[in-house]
UniProtKB/TrEMBL annotation:
<feature type="binding site">
    <location>
        <position position="60"/>
    </location>
    <ligand>
        <name>[4Fe-4S] cluster</name>
    </ligand>
</feature>
<dbReference type="GO" id="GO:0046872">
    <property type="term" value="F:metal ion binding"/>
</dbReference>
<dbReference type="GO" id="GO:0003677">
    <property type="term" value="F:DNA binding"/>
</dbReference>
<feature type="domain" description="4Fe-4S Wbl-type">
    <location>
        <begin position="28"/>
        <end position="90"/>
    </location>
</feature>
<protein>
    <recommendedName>
        <fullName>Transcriptional regulator WhiB</fullName>
    </recommendedName>
</protein>
<dbReference type="GO" id="GO:0005737">
    <property type="term" value="C:cytoplasm"/>
</dbReference>
<keyword id="KW-0804">Transcription</keyword>
<dbReference type="InterPro" id="IPR034768">
    <property type="entry name" value="4FE4S_WBL"/>
</dbReference>
<keyword id="KW-0479">Metal-binding</keyword>
<feature type="compositionally biased region" description="Low complexity">
    <location>
        <begin position="1"/>
        <end position="17"/>
    </location>
</feature>
<dbReference type="GO" id="GO:0047134">
    <property type="term" value="F:protein-disulfide reductase [NAD(P)H] activity"/>
</dbReference>
<dbReference type="GO" id="GO:0045892">
    <property type="term" value="P:negative regulation of DNA-templated transcription"/>
</dbReference>
<feature type="binding site">
    <location>
        <position position="57"/>
    </location>
    <ligand>
        <name>[4Fe-4S] cluster</name>
    </ligand>
</feature>
<feature type="compositionally biased region" description="Basic residues">
    <location>
        <begin position="90"/>
        <end position="108"/>
    </location>
</feature>
<keyword id="KW-0238">DNA-binding</keyword>
<dbReference type="Pfam" id="PF02467">
    <property type="entry name" value="Whib"/>
</dbReference>
<dbReference type="GO" id="GO:0051539">
    <property type="term" value="F:4 iron, 4 sulfur cluster binding"/>
</dbReference>
Length: 108
């Protein structure tokens, strides 16, 4: 997770209050180099960088809030909340499939 100046503010009315954004001030990544969380590529040295970023995330008290923010604000790049770009894309695909299944079940 990058430093707080790079963390987007969610646009949902339920999450834009100052209290909802307060989690960013407790993020373990605040003291880390933001570059760590934005590796170039997903092979070779980038894999080591992704693992190092995830290590920071695993020690973070606000990891879940960070991941939710990344998903809500559609962050396509970087490691957020302990999840890589590929992992977040997979989460989005699973959620979309579940929505389709629920919609199909309701209409059947």
């Amino acid at each position: 997770m990058p430093s707080s100046h790079l963390i987007p503010t969610p646009h949902s009315p339920t999450t834009t209050s100052a209290a909802a954004q307060d989690w960013r001030h407790r993020a373990a990544c605040r003291e880390e180099d933001p570059e760590l969380f934005f590796p170039v590529g997903n092979t070779g040295p980038a894999l080591l960088q992704i693992e190092e970023a995830k290590r920071v995330c695993r020690s973070c008290p606000v990891q879940e809030q960070c991941l939710l923010c990344a998903l809500e604000t559609r962050q396509d790049y970087g490691v957020w909340g302990g999840a890589s770009e590929d992992e977040r894309r997979a989460m989005k695909r699973r959620a979309a499939r579940q929505r389709v299944r629920k919609a199909t079940t309701r209409t059947a």
